[in-house]
Amino acid sequence: MAFIQTDTFTLRGYECDAFGRMSIPALMNLMQESANRNAVAYGIGIADLVSRGFGWMLMRFNLRMHEYPRYGQTVQLQTYPTLVEKYFIHRDFRLLADDGTLLGEATSTWLVFSIEKRAMVPMPDFIRSLSVPAGIDPQPKLPAKPAFQTTPWQPTDEKLVTVGWFSIDQNHHVNNVAYVQWLLEAMDNETLQTREIAEIDLVYRTESHWNDQLRVQSALEAPDTFLHRIEQQESGKDVLLARSRWR
Amino acid sequence: MAFIQTDTFTLRGYECDAFGRMSIPALMNLMQESANRNAVAYGIGIADLVSRGFGWMLMRFNLRMHEYPRYGQTVQLQTYPTLVEKYFIHRDFRLLADDGTLLGEATSTWLVFSIEKRAMVPMPDFIRSLSVPAGIDPQPKLPAKPAFQTTPWQPTDEKLVTVGWFSIDQNHHVNNVAYVQWLLEAMDNETLQTREIAEIDLVYRTESHWNDQLRVQSALEAPDTFLHRIEQQESGKDVLLARSRWR
């Protein structure tokens, strides 16, 4: 069986930013929710994995926004797996207006880890054997190591964040979306007030936990792009690397 | 015309805390959303007020949780005005499970301010004249100045918070719910890990704005109650006073 998950959401006030546009963290939260529901339909939900000693880890995420929906608007979110490889599974997302206009799209790469070994493992057979939906038009596979991960750069801005209670999930790991909120809230005032995200590309590196201190760093890369890094203050380990493009 | 707003919500993963219980900020966000929708039905929504030079301000909010819904559960939220006075309007909320069990209830007091004067004004006629629904059983009116507001106390814990971009609404004021998240995230680890909120009582005092620095203070009042204060670091003004009861 193959499943395309389709969810309809009407935007709530607190899901929109100060300009009434859907906020990126709110959108990513809905994408995560739809992905969970689709995984459950496939029998590969979080609970299905835990019962076999495994867990999901998001490794890459790329979101492009074409047009922002606004407060009260009804949108449709579609998500489905596009490709299963030995170590990775790829998942696409499409955000549509009620007239079918493509408002945004995202693609993501996930891996499976063994809870006991705390290490990445090849896709277990019950995941490896799943069928992706017919008739889909998958987005290009994301590079596992994009240039912004491998080319060193110096931050020009840094803010400290402490991981709070409402940013952790039931595994006591930080929710993937919380990092994006911290990264965006660390941006300079003028960018937040005058521009909007056209694209954001994320590399998740290490987990962090409740009460961890994180350094949220950024630097201007080009007139319309920024580089971002979130690292654990104590260990210096990279938690997230990112590149954002604004318009 | 009189309106009872009834919304049905299925709890999403990110609306639940590390124990899978609906989080208090998520619940308060939904309550605020339902209150907005009910106000729009009555012709007293934010936009209706702005077009006449007015704005809503939340002054008091009291929430009691009897039982926490969990991830995936469908809940019903009801809200309606219960009483309109010269200066205040009162609004109740009821959170129900799908079998009708009362999971939580809240009551709130709102005032109207003049945008031009930046000051409280008597309820304009178009609000004063509204009809509350028939057959409701209003919760007791909240005291305008509860004891925890008038009795001085010394904080034993303090954390600093900077108001981030995603905590402000379209008026560039901090969302009422953001304060509650900061107040709860400033609690000690043991309380967050071993207890749950039975009741929280809030007094909103002053607005705060994007990039403001806030001091989030607390002290144990009794074995199961805490006092909380959020003040502007620069002016020392009280933004929020609160009392929470845990079990």
UniProtKB/TrEMBL annotation, chains A, B:
Record flagged with keyword Hydrolase: yes
Any single Pfam family the record assigns to this protein: Acyl-ACP_TE
Limits of the Acyl-ACP thioesterase-like C-terminal domain: 158-247
Top-level division of the source organism's lineage: Bacteria
InterPro entries: Acyl-ACP_TE_C, Acyl-ACP_thioesterase_NHD, FATA/B, HotDog_dom_sf
Keyword Lyase: no
Gene3D superfamilies (alphabetical): Hotdog Thioesterase (3.10.129.10)
Keywords, sorted A to Z: Fatty acid biosynthesis, Fatty acid metabolism, Hydrolase, Lipid biosynthesis, Lipid metabolism, Transit peptide
Residue intervals of the Acyl-ACP thioesterase N-terminal hotdog domain: 7-127
SUPFAM superfamilies: Thioesterase/thiol ester dehydrase-isomerase
Annotated family: Belongs to the acyl-ACP thioesterase family.
This protein's name: Acyl-ACP thioesterase
Organism (species): Spirosoma utsteinense
